[in-house]
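Memo to structure team: turn this sequence into structure tokens by end of day. - J.P.
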Amino acid sequence: MGLDVSHDFNINGRTSSFAINSPKHGLKEIIIDTEDIHLVKNYTWRLKYCKNINNFYVVSNVYINNKLTTIHLHRLVTSCLDNMVVDHKDHDTFNNCKDNLRVCTNKQNQENRIKANSNSKSGVKGVCWCKKSNRWRATINHFNKQIYLVIFSEIKEAEEAVIDANNKYFTHNN
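Reply from structure team:
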């Protein structure tokens, strides 16, 4: 369910917030820049759960050229073009202040992922168990190519190698 927030802004200097009360997911506070109130005040916002990131986005349904379309709050406040994506730097999708948002390529957005894949045995992004050698393998993906770093006996060493490679190859790091 959406909530008409046209009169429900809590203005706190440079930032403002409004609440979305979802019957299924509870009450969530959404933060925006105060200067963006005029952009968002006429929409009915709701939460959209995204399974692949196990998180929510703030969205609204609108008619554009007689076609129902979903708009995302973070894309609206950044005026993001269709061929780009918006990265929440702090991974908090309820924080839609522009200093927390970065318009970037999909590759750059993936560089900012913090979690390993859900099927990961190591629980560490970029580290997997190599059965053949009975050691931990460190890898990164760069421009659609998997780069094998080194194989380690200790998981911590593999994790450190991934961090070093991220700092070397990636434009955005945690």
